[in-house]
Amino acid sequence: MTADSTAPPAPRPALGRIDAVVHFGFAVLMVASGVRYAMRHSPADNLGVLVLAVAVTALYILIAALARHREPHLGAMLVLVAAWAALVLMAPSFAWCSFAVYFLCRAAFSGAVAYVAAGATTLSTAAGLFRLSGATDIAMLLGPVAVGVLLTVVYDRIEADARIQRQLHAQVQLAQQRLLASERAAGAAGECERVSREIHDTVTQGLASNILLLEAALRSWPAPAAREDIRQASALLRGNLADTRSLVHELSTPAADGQPLPQALLTAASAYVDGVRLQVTGQERPVPLDVRHVLLRVTQSACANIKLHAGAGNVSLTLGYLPDALTLDIYDDGRGFDPAAVPPPSQDGGYGLRAMRQRVEQLAGVFSVESTPGEGTIIAAQIPLPPLEDTP
Predict the structure, then answer these.
(1) Most confident of 79-93, 107-121, 154-168, 314-328
(2) Pairing verdict, β 325-332 and 315-321
């Protein structure tokens, strides 16, 4: 046996109602046994036994309280077992209380200490009952031992099942955390892929076409065709510049870096529409950067749509901090539309709502649009957050 076999156990699950029933049973049996002993013996015999019974009860209460606060005390347990053995040998009437003492030994300690304490309790009970029978009834000797072995097997099985359950619960929690991290990583990868497509389809393709035009102009210079090539290259460069500025504007949020999330959202919205109102509900808290990024992009895209299509007079943002999620509602009183009638994305646009939904759902969130022609629009997003103590 190693040196740490007597060390206090790792945190063990509280038994709750089972503890309460065991302690209540101990109290009832101790009172009943004490009354029975006092009625059957003379006052001279009562005093020592009753004093010992009170001492055992006090030790039981002390160890039960320490075990409840995960602070088992080896010395107190050894004294309790010794006092209990003496009490049962002196007054076998108290033997019925051994069940509660046995469970207390197993609940307060683990390893060799628990087995030794429970075994000593069982053997002292067997000896006391055998003495009560006048050392003639072998069942009084073997019965408590058999019951003790049975309880040990059952208790060990319960503890093993509980340990497996705790391990499975920890594995499930770890798997959920890894899944959430994987989903966020996938969201970041999807965003990188989207940006790369934007750059390829606008800047890269435009620059490649400009190179071809300029090289053709260089070969034909100073022929009139060279001037036409240069004119086309100039027009393409202006288009590329506009595309680049649009992309940079989408990928950056002026004056938003370092700001609290509510102020950053208000700044992003105000870049597109004037007079935006912001309301914050719940207790503000730091949020992961990917969640902040998505909410900023949703706000930018929604407000850009409002400016282009809604003709709204009033726009409001509502940011809600929930214990396990963050919500964002964007409302405008513009002309509204029928969400079911929105055409699929094309070269003329139509990517905004789809992109917003993809961003939110990539973080395991929920995205919805509520709108009716002539009655305004509400865009709502809800993104789960890690527990408060785990938030960076």
Answers:
(1) 314-328
(2) antiparallel
Which residue segment(s) compose the domain that 86 sits in? 9-136
Name the residue type at position 37: Y
Q: For residue 29, tell me if it sits in a domain.
A: yes
Residues 172-183 have a mean pLDDT of: 84
Structure tokens at 288: 């992961």
Picking from 136, 153, 169, the residue at the C-terminal end of a domain is 136
Could you tell me if residue 124 is inside a domain? yes
- The structural domain count of the chain equals 2
Domain C-terminal end among 99, 120, 136: 136
Alpha carbons 183 and 160: distance in angstroms, whole number: 34
- Contact (Cβ atoms closer than 8 angstroms) between residue 297 and residue 334: no
Query: Reduced to 3 states, what is the DSSP secondary structure of residue 348?
Result: coil
Q: What is the pLDDT of residue 322?
A: 92
Distance CA 274, CA 379 (A): 18
CA distance 148 to 141: 12
The kind and range of the H/E element at 85 are helix 74-90
